[in-house]
């Protein structure tokens, strides 16, 4: 990060939940600076995906705010943010259309672009992810789990979003494929110059490509620090990973 880095995502004191009676997020604040990869970690059910859904706009905060750049987007629904290129959202597994080809899946992400722009953007993204070039005319159902995840990532990038939101990009992947998907995420940040906020279960692998991370516990932030610090933090290891640093 350089001195001119600016805040891309600014979540302030967010309280949110699925029913009026229960708060899942109990006053969460976090931020993502430009070109940062920030990871949200924590045990099952602590509210990681709920937080991502609230930043995306699937869920509206009961109180608090979500700013992207300087705009309060708390009340703006997800489809409007995707269309305006404010965010790209990559949900968990099984999110490509199996009967459509790789090219057609990508074109869906470019449905609000002109045909020429859309075709150019597909070519650009295929240069970043050569695996897609090789499978451009194959039905997405014939792609491996990792390839589908890269396709899903590339589709979200079609409208050139400023912020990419990823919900457990490594879910269901083998260790080798998982490493390739994380590599693709890291390459994306470098090449596209965007900010990434991702939820992950594979804490150590995610921390390796992250700049900072927030560790949640029952809807609140329990720890926040640079990824390199958290990777070696005994507190983090004991609380969430079940071991001390080697
Ligand atoms: N659509 C929903 N309706 C009602 N409650 C929900 C819904 N989605 C999640 N919850 C509840 O919200 C709480 C937090 O869930 P969330 O999915 O945010 O946790 P998480 O940290 O992402 O968990 P995991 O690591 O297991 O995916 C859980 O108690 C869950 O049961």
TrEMBL record:
Pfam families: ABC_tran. InterPro entries: AAA+_ATPase (IPR003593), ABC_transporter-like_ATP-bd (IPR003439), ABC_transporter-like_CS (IPR017871), BCAA_Transport_ATP-bd_LivF (IPR052156), P-loop_NTPase (IPR027417). It comes from the Bacteria. GO terms for molecular function: ATP binding. Residues 9-243 form the ABC transporter domain. Keywords: Amino-acid transport, ATP-binding, Cell membrane, Membrane, Nucleotide-binding, Transport. The keyword Ribosomal protein does not apply. PANTHER family: HIGH-AFFINITY BRANCHED-CHAIN AMINO ACID TRANSPORT ATP-BINDING PROTEIN LIVF. Belongs to the ABC transporter superfamily. This is Branched-chain amino acid transport system ATP-binding protein. The lineage of its organism: Bacteria, Pseudomonadati, Pseudomonadota, Betaproteobacteria, Burkholderiales.
């Amino acid at each position: 990060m350089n001195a001119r880095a600016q805040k891309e995502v600014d979540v302030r004191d967010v309280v949110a939940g699925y029913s009026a009676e229960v708060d899942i997020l109990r006053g969460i604040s976090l931020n993502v600076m430009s070109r940062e990869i920030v990871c949200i970690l924590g045990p099952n059910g602590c509210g990681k995906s709920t937080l991502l859904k609230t930043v995306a706009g699937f869920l509206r905060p009961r109180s608090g705010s979500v700013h992207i750049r300087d705009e309060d987007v708390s009340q703006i629904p997800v489809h409007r943010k995707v269309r305006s290129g404010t965010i790209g959202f990559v949900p968990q597994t099984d999110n490509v259309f199996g009967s459509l080809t790789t090219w057609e899946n990508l074109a869906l992400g470019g449905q609000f672009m002109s045909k020429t722009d859309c075709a150019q953007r597909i070519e650009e993204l295929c240069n970043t992810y050569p695996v897609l070039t090789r499978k451009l005319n194959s039905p997405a159902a014939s792609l491996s789990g990792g390839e589908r995840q890269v396709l899903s990532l590339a589709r979200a990038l079609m409208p050139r979003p400023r912020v990419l939101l990823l919900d457990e990009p490594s879910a269901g992947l083998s260790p080798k494929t998982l490493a390739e998907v994380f590599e693709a995420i890291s390459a994306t940040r470098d090449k596209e110059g965007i900010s990434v906020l991702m939820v992950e279960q594979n804490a150590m692998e995610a921390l390796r490509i992250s700049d900072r991370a927030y560790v949640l516990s029952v809807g609140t932030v329990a720890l926040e620090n640079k990824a390199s610090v958290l990777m070696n933090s005994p507190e983090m290891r004991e609380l969430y990973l079940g071991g001390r640093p080697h």
